[in-house]
């Protein structure tokens, strides 16, 4: 298996990205019917943030959103902070570095947009993702933990960017 190419989503790919994101989150127990419209709102995310895709053999195999300028997709962000949202990688290509490449691309976008910190929130059971984030340099920040909706606990991570 080759390495995927990371780039910005194209409007004609919104449906494929929506399907991948919803499928990964909902089938793996990280979403709910109430959350599904947000998972599928690629056009809305792309209008307010950067939506990136990983492409392998002309097929979208991963996606992530990075909000670098505030707004509704930058949950709990302060000025100068970016927030990573909705990382999803097709189960068939996991372990090949796709998720890490997407997260590193998010960090590059945050730097380019002048952010001083990147935040993300993840569920306690996403232990493979936790290791990925820590490999990239994110630090677990329990002070950032929160419950966005009843019965959903999110763990906070931060990456400080050099000035």
CATH architecture: 3-Layer(aba) Sandwich
Q: What letter string, H or E per element, gives the SSE order?
A: EHHHEEEHEHEEE
Question: Percent of residues in helical segments?
Answer: 25-40%
Please tell me the total number of domains: 1
How many strand units?
8
CATH class: Alpha Beta
- Whole-number average pLDDT? 92
- Major sheet summary line: 8 strands, mixed
Q: In angstroms, what is the radius of gyration?
A: 15 Å
CATH topology: Aminopeptidase
Shape: globular
Poorly predicted regions:
none
CATH homology-level superfamily:
Gcn5-related N-acetyltransferase (GNAT)
Lay out the secondary structure.
Layout: E1 5-8, H1 14-27, H2 36-40, H3 42-48, E2 50-56, E3 59-67, E4 81-89, H4 98-112, E5 117-122, H5 127-136, E6 139-140, E7 146-149, E8 152-160
Parallel strand pairs: 4-5
Antiparallel strand pairs: 1-2, 2-3, 3-4, 5-8, 6-8, 7-8
Descriptive notes:
There is one protein chain. With 163 residues, this protein is α+β, with helices and mostly antiparallel strands. The chain has one domain: Aminopeptidase (3-Layer(aba) Sandwich). Helices cover 31% and strands 31% of the residues. Strands 1, 2, 3, 4, 5, 6, 7 and 8 form an eight-stranded mixed β-sheet that branches.
């Amino acid at each position: 298996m080759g390495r995927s190419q990371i780039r910005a989503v194209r409007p004609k790919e919104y449906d494929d990205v929506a399907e991948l994101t919803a499928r990964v989150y909902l089938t793996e127990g990280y979403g709910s019917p109430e959350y599904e419209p947000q998972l599928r709102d690629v056009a809305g995310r792309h209008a307010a943030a950067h939506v990136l895709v990983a492409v392998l053999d002309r097929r979208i195999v991963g996606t992530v959103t990075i909000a670098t300028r505030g707004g509704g997709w930058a949950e709990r962000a302060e000025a100068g902070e970016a927030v990573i949202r909705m990382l999803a990688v097709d189960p068939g290509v996991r372990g090949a570095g796709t998720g890490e490449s997407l997260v590193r691309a998010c960090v590059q976008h945050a730097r380019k947009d002048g952010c001083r910190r990147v935040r993300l929130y993840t569920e306690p059971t996403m232990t493979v993702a936790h290791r990925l984030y820590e490999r990239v340099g994110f630090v677990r920040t329990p002070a950032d933990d929160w419950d966005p909706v009843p019965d959903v606990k999110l763990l906070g991570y931060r990456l400080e960017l050099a000035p």
